[in-house]
UniProtKB/TrEMBL annotation:
It comes from Dactylosporangium siamense. One of its GO terms (biological process) is peptidoglycan biosynthetic process. Keywords: Carboxypeptidase, Cell shape, Cell wall biogenesis/degradation, Glycosyltransferase, Hydrolase, Membrane, Multifunctional enzyme, Peptidoglycan synthesis, Protease, Transferase, Transmembrane, Transmembrane helix. Gene3D superfamilies: Biosynthetic peptidoglycan transglycosylase-like, DD-peptidase/beta-lactamase superfamily. In the N-terminal section; belongs to the glycosyltransferase 51 family. SUPFAM superfamilies: beta-lactamase/transpeptidase-like, Lysozyme-like. The chain crosses the membrane at residues 12-34. One of its GO terms (molecular function) is penicillin binding. Residues 360-670 form the Penicillin-binding protein transpeptidase domain. GO terms for cellular component: outer membrane-bounded periplasmic space. It comes from the Bacteria. This is Penicillin-binding protein. The lineage of its organism: Bacteria, Bacillati, Actinomycetota, Actinomycetes, Micromonosporales.
Length: 726
């Protein structure tokens, strides 16, 4: 029977290479239990239209690797199938020989279809009355894997893997055609990169790493035989589940290697005598497996990626590319600065605190996000979290501390937090841009009666006909300039200054510097119809994030160049080329534009120096500032702005140097009404100051450029030279 079948099959070889009918017969012989109906023949015929070129050019889904700014420290991996393509020269000959011995002993002899194997499978299947052998060569298996991996719909996946004669015919025809265009070594290399070895390991590089924590070049004979044996049935022969079945299968592969002359008797005996010794590793995936403290940056990077048009038409398509595209991404995260930022946060607020203390560092002039730190653990496990700080939620929800994946620092869908007096920066810039000098003086009473509700300067009743902001203390009362008003954070000065420039000008200034309105009320207030009457805007009643505020203040520190905060420096595709958008611009390129004149930005920095105790280069700060200990801590030129909201519900400090800007805050993300209190209000200031000091240690001291006389004292002022304070 076998000889007769071999003669028949051998006579069909030439016809199969050029015709369809014989292929159908062979498929029917191999699958006697799966008859080809007319519909099956049509599907098989249609399938032959698959271009061989697509099989040659197709690369399997690969893992994307994301690194820190040093280009070597792994930050995260993203994959749907854990696989990294590797060339045959980096793969041990042991696994090359083992896979041939286990799966296709005549691989080097046949032309895509092993007709001796076909005959053998026919006999076995006839005896079994079912499909017990499939006679698939490595080439056919490669074709099947590529068709499966390139499928766009569940139906296409099913068609690529279903047990039908039509599918088998398609594989045979394509395998024969493929071997006309690809060498055996090319096919073997491709196969070793698509085969599934269990434990989410696709390809031999992943398998060597997962099972033995080594590179494929270093696989020994018994290790290679074990891996090769897994391909047939990864779950059945899983060595992690039990050594018995895995050992039997491994030894079978070793024997086959010996039969084929790949091993001599002594080497085969030694390999069989070697006990299975696994060194299992779990390949990290997505942001939950990042280094401690890095998860929030990773999640922000993932969110940023999903919003880049240059990486795909839709968010889902972009994320799919990240998980399958084999990108090599170098991010902006500086491991040293991140470590400093995280240590300073945890120094002042423990993870099991309802208050979130966090900070974001951005580099002026590039927008590169150098650190994102918060006193939380990036984790989905909320089982041991503390009680919810909102009494209305406490009975049904746990709090989001210490574990959470909420984007507390920005870059996600959270609205953020009110930022208090840090928003005075936008009013200051609007005034300077409209030609008001830093020396502009305004009488600032303890309480000011605003005109924004009625249009009159002195309505009768505060809180009914008007809005009446007050200063935090009597020491702020009196005649103030922009230097002293900003340094002391005088509310009644800035409400009047905002009235002069127009509230809408301050709102639009914030937008130019990168702020977005994240709540319905903020979007309404910022609308053209309402912005001109948003008097409280200058006091920071809108929600924002540390990421946005760091980017906004970095614009000022960079002489008015706004750079969109960006988490990457390089995105390389699997072929090594830089990922670009439709216009050919690298997706990782800085997105910078001038939004302020250098002189206006320098004027704002000069006023912000009054806050930190560094003192202005061009004017009088009025004796003190709200964060006067920052300069003695940082010990280099530094400016900034502190901010608190009503009843100390949140507190902020944004510090800027020419080389680094950091925005820090403390608030309760679960319950905005939960006050941080005056005892905690200074923590952002202290955290940012010490982070700037330590992060900049060892770097050159850079000076701020003083503004012109015109910005300081007006267009008619006599020119003078200002010496920078060191």
């Amino acid at each position: 029977m076998i000889a007769r079948t071999l003669r028949v099959a051998g006579g069909f070889v030439a016809l199969v290479r050029t015709g369809l009918i014989v292929g159908l017969v062979i498929a029917a012989l191999i699958y006697p239990m799966v008859a080809l109906t007319g519909a099956g023949v049509k599907r098989g015929t249609d399938a032959l239209a698959t271009p061989v070129g697509a099989l040659r050019s197709s690369l399997p889904a690969q893992t994307s690797h994301v690194y820190a700014a040093d280009g070597t420290t792994l930050l995260a991996q993203f994959y749907e199938e854990y696989r990294t393509y590797t060339t045959l020269k980096t793969i041990s000959p042991n696994i090359q020989k083992a896979i041939v011995a286990a799966e296709d002993a005549r691989f080097w002899e046949h032309h895509g279809v092993d007709f001796k194997g076909v005959a053998r499978a026919f006999v076995a299947n006839q005896k079994a009355g079912a499909v017990s052998q499939g006679a698939s060569t490595l080439t056919m298996q490669y074709v099947r894997n590529v068709l499966r991996d390139s499928a766009d719909t569940p139906a296409e996946v099913s068609e690529a893997t279903e047990q039908t004669g039509a599918r088998k015919l398609r594989e045979m025809k394509l395998a024969i055609e493929l071997e006309k265009h690809m060498s055996k070594t090319e096919i073997l290399e491709r196969y070793l990169n698509v085969a599934y070895f269990g434990h989410r390991a696709y390809g031999v590089l992943a398998a060597a790493e997962v099972y033995f924590s080594k590179r494929p070049a270093d696989l020994t004979v018994p290790e290679a035989a074990l891996l090769a044996g897994l391909v047939q049935a990864p779950s059945s022969y899983d060595p992690a589940a039990g050594a018995s079945a895995a050992t039997v299968r491994r030894d079978y592969v070793i024997d086959r290697m010996a039969d084929l002359g790949y091993l001599d008797a002594a080497a085969a005996s030694a390999a069989r005598a070697t006990p299975i010794a696994l060194k299992l590793s779990e390949p990290p995936n997505d942001c939950l497996a990042t280094q401690p403290g890095w998860g929030f940056f990773c999640a922000m990077f993932r969110s940023w990626w999903s919003n880049q048009p240059g990486l795909g038409a839709t968010s889902d398509e972009r994320l799919d590319k990240l998980r399958r595209g084999g990108y090599t991404v170098v991010t902006s995260l500086d491991p040293r600065i991140q470590a400093v930022a995280q240590a300073q946060v945890l120094k002042r607020e423990k993870t099991r605190s309802a208050y979130a203390l966090g900070q974001v560092a951005v580099e002026p002039g590039t927008g590169l996000i150098r650190a994102m730190a918060v006193n939380r653990t990036y984790s989905l496990d909320r089982a041991s979290n503390g009680p919810h700080s909102d009494p209305r939620q406490r009975k049904r929800l746990r709090g989001n501390y210490p574990n959470t994946v909420n984007p507390l620092l920005g870059g996600g869908d959270m609205a953020g937090y009110q930022a208090g007096s840090t928003f005075k920066m936008f009013t200051l810039l609007a005034a300077l841009e409209q030609g008001m000098p830093l020396s502009t003086a305004i009488d600032s009473p303890k309480t000011f009666v605003s005109k924004y509700k009625t249009g009159r300067d002195s309505p009768a009743r505060c809180g009914v006909d008007s809005w009446c902001p007050s200063n935090a203390s009597n020491s702020m009362t009196g005649r103030q300039t922009m230097w002293s008003g900003f340094g002391k954070s005088v509310n009644t000065f800035f409400v009047q200054l905002e009235q002069r420039v127009g509230a809408e000008s301050a709102v639009r200034m914030a937008e130019r510097l990168g702020l977005h309105w994240r709540t319905g009320i903020d979007r309404l207030q910022a609308s053209p119809a309402k912005a001109k009457t948003w008097g409280a805007f200058t006091l920071g009643v809108a929600d924002t994030t540390p990421l946005e505020m760091a980017g906004a203040f970095a614009t000022v520190a960079a002489d008015g160049i706004h750079c969109e905060p960006i988490p990457v420096t390089s995105i390389r595709q699997v072929d090594g080329t830089e990922a670009t958008d439709a216009a050919g611009v690298p997706v990782a390129a800085p997105r910078c534009a001038r939004v302020l004149s250098p002189d206006v930005a320098r004027g704002a920095v000069d006023a912000a120096r009054c806050v930190t105790g560094f003192k202005a280069a061009t004017g009088d700060c009025g004796g003190w500032g709200t964060a006067s200990k920052v300069y003695p801590t940082v010990r280099r030129p530094v400016a900034g702005k502190s901010g608190t909201t009503d009843d100390n519900r949140a507190a902020w400090f944004v510090g800027m140097t020419p080389g680094l800007t950091i925005a820090g805050f403390i608030a309760d993300p679960d319950n905005p009404l939960h006050r941080v209190g005056s005892a905690n209000a200074g923590k952002p200031r202290e955290t940012v100051a010490e982070t700037l000091r330590d992060a900049l240690t060892g770097t050159a001291v850079r000076q701020f450029t003083p503004p012109s006389t015109t910005i300081a004292y007006g267009a008619n002022a006599k020119p003078r030279a200002f010496k920078p304070r060191r």
